[in-house]
Amino acid sequence: MLLLILFLLLPYALVIIACSCVFVFRMSRLRKPEACKSSPFSLVVCTSDADAAMCARGLPPLYASLRECDEVIIVADHVGAAGLAELRRAASVCGGAVAVVENERGRGKKNAQRCGVMMARRAAVVCVDADCSVGPGFADALGAVLSRFSGRHFMLLLPVAMCGSDSLFGRLVELEFGCLQVVTAGTAMLGRPSMANGAGMAFDKQLYTGHDACERYASGDDMFLLAHALRTGAVVRYLPSSAAVVSTVAPASLGAYLRQRTRWLAKAGGYTDAGVVLLALVVFAAVMAWPAAFGLAMSGFVSWGAASGVFVAKLLIDASACAAWLFFRCGLRGLASLWVALPLELLYPFMTVTVSFRALMADRARW
Question: What is the pLDDT of residues 298-307, one digit of tens each?
Answer without folding.
Answer: 998 888 998 9
